[in-house]
Design goal:
Elements: H1 31-34, E1 45-52, E2 64-66, E3 80-88, E4 93-101, E5 110-114, E6 120-126
Antiparallel strand pairs: 1-4, 1-6, 2-3, 2-5, 3-4, 5-6
Length: about 140
């Protein structure tokens, strides 16, 4: 997670799937903000991974994520945006990170990333931990 690129001042640890890092017992700076009505909405953007369905396309960072393969007339309803995108030599394919509305409930769903040329790229919503999600390599 790159602070300032994958996150901004509106993203909470809960949005990132890191609610385990927040104390449930102790008070801390920012605790009140975590429970405001706007930060506990069900439709908030959540941190997810994206895999281009062709296994070749490296997505543009900042590109909008939409629900349909055809780009509708403006205003286009945006579900989220790509925050980081790279080619992974370990996986042999491109990977991307994104903030998507209700992202964790969309795992396995096909969405579309709008390109600068006016086309879309189909992507699958995935776990944002692409390599060794169980942490087996950590323990050798």
């Amino acid at each position: 997670i790159i602070v300032g690129q994958d996150t901004d001042g509106t993203v909470t640890p809960i949005d990132l799937g890191m609610d385990w890092i927040v104390s449930k017992q102790k008070d801390f700076l920012g605790r009140r903000s975590l429970f405001r009505s706007d930060t506990v909405r069900a439709d908030r953007k959540q941190f997810v991974g994206l895999l281009s369905e062709d296994g070749q396309t490296v997505l543009d960072e900042g590109a909008q994520i939409i629900a349909t393969a055809e780009i509708p007339e403006p205003p286009v309803p945006m579900l989220g945006h790509v925050t980081s995108s790279y080619y992974s030599p370990n996986l042999g394919r491109p990977i991307a990170l994104a903030l998507v509305k209700q992202g964790r409930s969309r795992m396995g769903e096909t969405l579309y990333v709008a390109t600068a040329t006016g086309s879309t790229v189909p992507v699958t919503v995935a776990n944002p931990v692409f390599y060794d999600p169980e942490g087996k390599r950590l323990d050798g």
